[in-house]
Amino acid sequence: MAAQVSEEDVLLAKRIISAAERHDLPALKVLLKEGSANVQDPTATAATSPLHAAILSCGEAKDGKEADGDAVQTVDLLLQNGAIWNDLNKEDETPGCVAHRLGQKKIYEKIVEAGVRAELLFAKMQALGLSGDDDVEDDDEILEEQPAVKKQKVDKETVQVVQEAVDEEILDDVSKDNLAYLKSELRYRGHILFDESDNAVMMDWETEIMQRHAQTLIPKPGLKVMNVGHGMGIVDTAIQTHEPAQHHIIEGHPQVHQRLREQGWYDKPNVIIHEGRWQDVLPKLVEQGVVLDAIYYDTFAEDYDAFKEFSSEYVIQLLAPEGRFGWYNGLGADRQICYDVYTKVSEIDLHEAGFDTEWEDIKVPTGLHGSKQWEGTRRPYWTIDVYKLPVNTFVR
Ligand SMILES: C[S@@+](CC[C@H](N)C(=O)[O-])C[C@H]1O[C@@H](n2cnc3c(N)ncnc32)[C@H](O)[C@@H]1O
């Protein structure tokens, strides 16, 4: 049950939001000693956080003239006081979405930086076993307001209920769990590979992106190359055109193995297919002392932590000193701000793991967004205009 909000709290929330909206720094500084930078006005029809309010009131940047001075300092002040960079308003917009829509680039960059800091800190806390929920006391509240997977600070019975909710969610959407996905029924339908929950696992509008990945990773014939995740075989077909000496393919889904068989991949010279999850296959390749000139990673139903493990545990062991590593950069691609934050977070994490990253911008096909191509898919996983293609090499 949501906690009762007193009249005093509502008044304070209104005053904080109003001071943020007016970019009234002196008032806001005083008010933030009494209340949070994340207050919501429960009586407002269009609920909005102080950060949303501060950005919305800047209006559209016209003729390259962006908000400056007090507006930017207000955003800074709210972020310094813990304003949540990816909080959603009723229009399903984060503060970064609003800044992006209004063309307020300076403010947008501030939110990207705050997002990167927050995500790096969150990952560090998780690695240390700190949930970040320690100040939340009411277990009921945790159940109601947090995403299922984070609801762990509760008693045994509740854990069970929560686990059932998680399982149900996975059943409803197999892309939430790699093992569930790998057991699910796939459908190849023309230009799309679907999973059992109607998610598009792969679509052929990504062909140019796949071809460019192969080009950037394989500068000459005769190299040893590995691709993880065969999908529709688009990147593997592109890899073949660069005449590799060895072409390893790791694939975990039995139906994709079947398709590889039907399409004659097992008989192609120099192609070595490893059936199984990369988590099981790669330790064996490391043990065998396999060294590769190029590695490409594009799996499905795996989270950012899996990618981090892949790059920091395995790529560093398998890649030749002059080798190149590429990966599908699709995290957060249904929201520009999330894509920009995760592009930066991955660059920082990869640098920590020992890699430099070079980015190349590729415009996605015009007319993709909202087009018929997405018909039958659960949701469009790509809504932004530019794909940032990464090429990683060992830090020099
Ligand atoms: C997005 S598709 C790859 C598309 C591919 N790049 C192409 O050009 O068509 C992802 C593939 O990774 C496979 N996969 C998912 N998780 C895996 C894992 N843990 N190990 C190996 N393969 C996995 C999926 O079955 C699927 O075939």
TrEMBL record:
GO biological process, one term: methylation
A single cellular component GO annotation: nucleus
This enzyme's EC code(s): 2.1.1.-
GO MF entries: protein arginine N5-methyltransferase activity
Coiled-coil zones: none
RMT2 domain span: 174-396
Main location: cytoplasm
UniProt keyword annotation of Transmembrane helix present: no
Subcellular location: Cytoplasm; Nucleus
Enzyme kind, highest EC tier: transferase
Keywords: Cytoplasm, Methyltransferase, Nucleus, S-adenosyl-L-methionine, Transferase
Family according to the record: Belongs to the class I-like SAM-binding methyltransferase superfamily. RMT2 methyltransferase family.
Function: S-adenosyl-L-methionine-dependent protein-arginine N-methyltransferase that methylates the delta-nitrogen atom of arginine residues to form N5-methylarginine (type IV) in target proteins. Monomethylates ribosomal protein L12.
Subunit structure, interactors included: Monomer.
Name of the protein in its database record: Arginine N-methyltransferase 2
Taxonomic lineage: Eukaryota, Fungi, Dikarya, Ascomycota, Pezizomycotina
